[in-house]
Design brief:
Blueprint lengths: L4 H23 L6 H12 L4 E4 L6 H11 E2 L2 E5 L6 H5 E7 L6 E7 L6 E5 L6 H4 L3 H6 L1 E4 L2 E4 L5 E6 L12 H5 L3 E4 L5 H11 L11 E2 H13 L4 H12 L10 H6 E3 L3 H17 L7 H5 L2 H5 L4 E2 L1 H5 L4 H11 L2
Parallel strand pairs: 1-9, 1-10, 2-11, 3-6, 6-9
Antiparallel strand pairs: 4-5, 7-8, 12-13
Helix pairs in contact: 1-2, 10-12
């Protein structure tokens, strides 16, 4: 914790400089999407995981690969398919025989989840049974096989991509799995200028490549800074009120919540609002969180933790629409 206001400002400025150095390196490869890059890095600095949703070909996988190139960390990719099994994610125990054909022993063969940056590509194409293999790793940062528990080395982040649920051959993620993701980030379709820049970068001989600009220890230090940012009681109460307002069963819930929502956010939603707000404050050069910082991450932190009811779906509403109306009521 900084000793005085001047030191706090210096800490915030150093965090901002390091954060945007990483953003700039990723932006050498990724066209546009700067707010999306910042949201992904926010998940990384908050010890969370990101769910990236968009139609095929908009750069979801490329963004994760570029992030891995920008970090001096171990990276692995898991291609989720309908025939993928849980052991293909976590690893399995195999029988080892010594070279002389004598004694045998059991050895755990680690799966691709044992990395720092894990790309779970097209996660909603695998069956729910396989999707659930990520649950313990994402929450506890450990993997249990039989009676043995193996811990994952920090920093650890899962970046999962998925196609919209109306796409062919997709399985919806269960609520418990969705709740493990810190943010759900939407990828919009690029505009004309962005597509032109994509063609310029990818159809010539000079294809840009990101280089490592940050180590695991640097990320751990930045994560510690995020945890040290103070939050005033009224800001914390604001985040709590936003989460409670998404629950239609609670007395005093806004009318739009009762009309269009079936389920509201878990307490993890409030955690995402506070930690995400801390990043917003640091990037603005402040070592204190405001209500506006919290409001700035409401969509990212709560859209996947609120479930529309039948009436909401029939009316063509989205979780973002409902959250916008809730935000107007919670002042």
């Amino acid at each position: 914790m900084p000793a005085d206001a001047n030191q706090a400002k210096q800490v915030a400025q150093k965090f901002r400089d390091d954060f945007y150095k990483l953003v700039d390196e990723i932006s050498k490869v990724i066209v546009g999407y700067r707010p999306i890059i910042e949201s992904v890095l926010t998940c990384l600095m908050c010890e969370g995981h990101a769910l990236l949703e968009g139609v095929p070909g908009v750069g979801k996988t490329l963004l994760v690969n570029t992030l891995a190139d920008s970090l001096d960390l171990k990276f692995s990719r898991i291609q989720f398919t309908p025939d993928l099994m849980p052991a293909d994610v976590t690893g399995t125990t195999i029988i080892m025989e010594d070279e002389h054909g004598g004694s045998r022993s059991l050895k755990f063969q680690r799966g691709p989840i044992f990395a720092n940056v894990v790309l779970a590509d097209e996660i909603n194409r695998a069956t729910p049974k396989t999707q659930s293999a990520l649950l313990e790793a994402m929450q506890e940062q450990s993997v249990t096989v039989a009676t043995s528990t193996y811990h994952l080395e920090p920093p650890f982040i899962v970046l999962a991509t998925q196609n919209p649920l109306e796409m062919e051959g997709t399985y919806p993620l269960p609520e418990a799995q969705m709740d493990r993701f810190f943010f759900k980030i939407h990828f919009p379709f690029p505009g004309k200028e962005e597509i032109a820049e994509i063609l310029e970068r990818t159809t010539t001989t000079k294809v840009p490549q990101a280089k490592p600009v940050m180590t695991g220890s640097s990320i751990q230090k930045m994560r510690q800074i995020v945890r040290e940012v103070p939050v005033a009681d009224h800001v914390r109460s604001h985040a709590i009120n936003l989460v409670l307002a998404t629950h239609p069963e609670l007395e005093g819930a806004p009318e739009i919540t009762k009309q269009y929502l079936r389920y509201g956010s878990s307490p993890r939603g409030a955690q995402a609002l506070i930690l995400g707000g801390k990043i917003k404050a640091l990037l603005d050069g402040r070592f204190a969180v405001s209500r506006q910082d919290v409001d700035g991450v409401v969509h990212l932190g709560l859209r996947h933790r609120t479930v529309l009811n039948f009436e909401g779906e029939a009316a063509g509403m989205t979780s973002d629409d409902v959250l916008d109306e809730i935000g107007k009521k919670i002042k």
